[in-house]
Task: inverse folding
């Protein structure tokens, strides 16, 4: 599969027709255990479903192919994947360097779940390499980055940060949820591991929760696979199957998400109600050149700062009709959110806090004329 291009791999990797019946879609193996041919006589290695399930395996094959990885593991959620990764690599006394606007749940996991077990975390501005170098210590095992970031769409040069981290012997992890592998392939840029919330663009239809770790090589596979097996936050067969189905249309969906978001960003830049538009596809975005180099499109996420302040931002988030007020992102339907009270409530008052006048859009693949008309009526309604 690796010789084929992205859209082809997304549809065919791990998706061989059922050899017994020819069913073009492999069945959902909705079973908790597998019969053994004599004690220890496992068919194709399957025994008990916490250890392995054929539907999960086909998703894992597909995920590895999407990122150009050696292998992948799929989990019940993005945070379950992150937790297995962190516990598989770290031990008490180790240290993590974390971008200062990564997903709030990642920060919460490190500082509230893992900190009591002896893991230390320092947040840094990843665009400032001196700050990154200064934060790295002998105990630093992981440098964790997210680009574009959430919700301010900051862009980090993956190759440059990877070089600094590798010089210090740290493992480089990229949360590639926002870009999706359709737009950005961190392993090829020097990352060691990629994590995903497959809940977002990979699943793509707001109907399933999931997460993944994708491995550039075998170094950490056994340790993280052991966490998956020993703790058990695996994806259920139906969830794995729904994610696989979503992934098959990823390339076309992401193209449309990006096209719609670009049009909305350009429209928003022309409106005085917004004092700032955060979208890497705009030439005015400080990370535009890096994004143009390391991504093959700019994605469907954008944030808007309301000139009239926090109350106007909250009112605007409640005034749209097609853009529905909800957490999450990456589905075919457009969503709007007010990060300070919603996705980023857990990081208020920390280094990761978000400006209070910002709304975040997850631009869906509806007709963009309807989307812009919806935002226009929202502005008219709040009279801002
Ligand atoms: C949603 C999200 C996560 C967490 O994933 P869940 O599936 O909700 O556990 C991690 N990183 C990013 C960037 C996310 O958007």
Result:
């Amino acid at each position: 599969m690796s010789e084929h291009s992205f859209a082809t791999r997304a549809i065919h990797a791990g998706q061989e027709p059922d050899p017994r019946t020819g069913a073009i879609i492999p069945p959902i193996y909705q079973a908790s255990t597998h019969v053994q041919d004599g004690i220890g006589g496992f068919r194709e290695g399957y025994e008990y479903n916490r250890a392995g399930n054929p539907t999960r395996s086909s998703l894992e094959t597909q995920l590895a192919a999407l990122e150009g990885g050696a292998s992948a593991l799929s989990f019940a959620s993005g945070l379950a994947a992150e937790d297995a990764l962190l516990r598989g690599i770290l031990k008490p006394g180790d240290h993590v360097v974390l971008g200062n606007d990564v997903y709030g749940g990642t920060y919460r996991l490190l500082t509230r779940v893992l900190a009591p077990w002896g893991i230390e975390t320092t947040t840094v501005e990843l665009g400032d390499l001196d700050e990154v170098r200064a934060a790295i210590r002998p105990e630093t095992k992981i440098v964790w980055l997210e680009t574009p970031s959430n919700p301010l769409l900051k862009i980090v040069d993956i190759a440059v940060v990877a070089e600094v981290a590798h010089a210090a012997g740290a493992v480089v992890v990229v949360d590639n949820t926002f870009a999706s592998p359709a737009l950005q392939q961190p392993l090829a840029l020097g990352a060691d591991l990629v994590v995903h919330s497959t809940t977002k663009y990979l699943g793509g239809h707001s109907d399933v929760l999931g997460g993944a770790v994708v491995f550039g090589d075998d170094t950490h596979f056994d340790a993280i696979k052991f966490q998956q097996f020993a703790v058990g936050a695996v994806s259920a067969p139906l969830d794995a199957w729904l994610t696989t189905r979503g992934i098959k249309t990823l390339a076309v969906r992401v193209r449309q998400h990006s096209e719609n978001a670009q049009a909305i960003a350009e429209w928003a830049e022309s409106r005085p109600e917004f004092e700032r538009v955060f979208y890497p596809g705009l030439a005015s975005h400080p990370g535009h050149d890096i994004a143009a180099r390391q991504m093959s499109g700019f994605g469907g996420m954008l944030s808007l700062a309301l000139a009239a302040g926090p109350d106007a931002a909250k009112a605007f988030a409640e005034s749209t009709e097609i853009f529905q007020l909800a957490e999450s992102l990456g589905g075919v339907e457009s969503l709007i959110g007010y990060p300070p009270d919603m996705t980023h409530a857990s990081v208020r008052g920390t280094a990761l806090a978000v400006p209070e006048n910002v709304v975040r859009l997850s631009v869906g693949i509806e007709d963009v004329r309807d989307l812009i008309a919806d935002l226009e009526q929202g502005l008219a309604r709040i009279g801002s």
